[in-house]
Amino acid sequence: MGKKAVFYHAGCSVCVEAEQNVAKALDTGRYSVEIVHLGQQKARVKEAEAAGVKSVPALVLDGLPFHINFGAGLDALK
After folding, report:
1. What sign does the CA torsion over 48, 13, 25, 1 have?
2. How far apart are the first and last CA of the chain?
3. Contact call for residues 16 and 23 (beta carbons, < 8 A)
């Protein structure tokens, strides 16, 4: 199995579209992709913050956060 990628989102239409078009496009031979819905898994918001995520949807790849589009700031999910 490859490296881990984590896609954080809040379930909004921007996030769902990004999940379908970005997270699912990753090469599963290189990355194990975990999808985290922060609206349903609020306990993981601190984890996302620690990874450098400022807003969702965001993809953490090789330890670096990539903000795909602005759907919601993490403060709105607390």
Report:
1. positive
2. 33
3. no
User: What's residue 70's pLDDT?
Assistant: 76
Strand runs labelled E in the chain: 3-9, 31-37, 55-61, 64-73
pLDDT at 23: 81
What is the separation of C-alpha 4 from the centre of its chain, rounded to a whole number of angstroms? 12
Q: What are 66's strand-pairing partners?
A: 59
CB neighbours of residue 64 within 10 Å: 9
Question: pLDDT by residue (tens digit) across 5-51?
Answer: 999 999 888 888 888 888 888 988 999 999 999 989 999 999 999 99
Q: What secondary structure letter does DSSP report for 31?
A: E
Q: Which helix (H) or strand (E) holds 17?
A: helix 13-21
* pLDDT average, residue stretch 64-68: 93
